[in-house]
Amino acid sequence: MYRYLFAILFLSITFTQSEYRVRQDFNFSDYGSESSNVRNEQQLLDLINSIVVENNIPGLSVTFVKGQDVVWDSYFGFSNIDENIQVDENTMFILSSVSKTITATALMQLWESNLFDINESINNYLPFDVIHPGFLNTPITFKMLLSHTSGISDNWGFMPYYDGDSPIDLQYYLEQYLTTEGDYYDSNLNFTNSEPGTNFEYSNIAVALIGLLIQEISNQPFNDFCRSNIFEPLGMENTYWFLSEIEDLNKVAMPYLIDGASGDSCSEIGCFYVQGNSCFCDPSCLDYQDCCPDYNNVCVENNNDISPFNAYMHYGYSDYPSGQLRSTSKDLSKFMSAYMNDGIQDGVRILNSQTIDYIKTIHYPSANSSQGLIWYYKNQSGRELIGHNGGDTGSLTEMFFSPSNEVGVVLLTNSSSYNALMEIENAVLDFAENFEPIVLGDINSDNTTNIQDVILIIGMILNDQYNQLADINSDSSVDVSDIILVVNIILNIN
Known about the structure:
about 20% strand
């Protein structure tokens, strides 16, 4: 799902200066691309590097999971260009709508504890009533919130960005938005025309409401509940809902807007421009002439010396449970791995296997045939994947896995080049499906390290032969020190 800024308004409020911006989400549930033909790691790295450079992607963090393990990770570009800070394994990116999967997980943990019924009215647990103005007698249920069928709409005029965390309390904000006396209430714009439970409309506000329900039911602040029940058990040490929780903001990737070219609005394919700025369009949209008809003339020939990267700000919003989580690709991969393995990651269970299956079930097929409980399915280059994506100002994120072959991928960027990210995702999945991790000391490639490998190394030494697999300490020679290392590996295995 894709949130993006397309208009700017400046308003002053008593709390602080905030930039009111209209954010929009787009669903790219299906994306086709030819196979990348990636056959080895170096080819993959070369391909990703070329895509990053060609598409002006400031920074990128990639991991993939196979089975229960994070088996490959790599990092590209810069977290902060001005400060010359490169992306590494500790770089946190704003996850945007991928955050919703964490919010859903927290709610389902409470459901497992029998603290509410998923088909029950949410008003039984809220400090105020939420009633669809067109269907006063139809209750909004937990399941409707989780499946985007609640009838609650995103009114972008009251969903601003702030420089830093939002100063407005979650409960106050939602009460003002969803109740008839609220300052942000609009019966036409805050709700759909459909009866709750009948039609699909993606809703950030509905997921923010899930966050409030978690607070009310657990009697804990939402962010604290997630830390105690998800982040700490899974060892997600670099994952935070609020900027104020992060000690060193240099570890957070700066969001960037990328200059390109002018053209008509291309929101349907994820490409945008700003009125009055003659050089703003995602370079990945160059193939769409209606979006970037003058890219080469305006942006390449006349502005060669102008950096295309425009730093934005570390921002927040009042509906933060819908998209404000910041994390690393490794942390997020641990979370995804739990979903890939029936709720368990590295021996820690966060949900029962039956709950995972229930989340992956399509509960309202007539409303949306790919939507589970927050998690959703997409077909990409012939693969059926389940997960979530996210997009926001200076942010594009992907977290998907294939249930059929137990391969999952996480990609985090600090820009918004969607087509480029899909090309990278397909390449990583191509590589991951055929990837076999090298077992250290496994000289004869039988997927184990044993006495046969020691014998092979001895033979290489006696015959003055070199083999990279036998060079355990990577000193460009095969000698007694490599034998000692292999023996230690065998002893530790046993």
